Amino acid sequence: MNQLEKAEKIAANLRQEPYILFRNDCIGKSRRLKKACRDMGIPTRLVVCLGYARARLFNRPLIVPVIHGWGEVEGQRIETSRPLGHSGFMGIVPVHIKPLIAIRF
Question: What is the C-alpha separation between 50 and 105, in angstroms, rounded?
């Protein structure tokens, strides 16, 4: 099993945890991914971005600004916030968030 597969397995467990804004959100889960990967010797970066996403409010499509976080292993984006493809508040799907400004730690 290569490093990317190991990191993806850790992320899959984190995705199953409930998403709680400011307590167990995308940035917090990504920090935990980075720590778990570091403990296993996998080089990982935490990425925090200001971006935009498509959303729905009162059944109308919108483009909204969001702050989002994820992990990167071997240059691949690893989402941790929700199960892949599932939407959150206002129908925002984390995988579809487009970063405008990203900071890597």
Answer: 15
Domain range list for the chain: 3-104
- E strands of 1-105, at which residues? 45-57, 60-73, 76-78, 98-104
- Of 40, 39, 51, 103, the C-alpha closest to 72 is 103
Is the pTM higher than 0.85? yes
pLDDT in tens, 38-89: 999 999 999 999 999 999 989 899 999 999 999 999 999 999 999 988 888 8
**Cα–Cα distance between 56 and 62 in angstroms, integer?**
6
Q: Which residue has the tokens 């508040």?
A: 89
HSE of 62 in the Cβ direction (CA atoms, 13 Å)? 13
Q: Token pair for residue 6?
A: 């190991």
Distance between CA 77 and CA 21 in Å, rounded? Answer: 21
Nearest to 79 by CA among 23, 22, 3, 25: 25
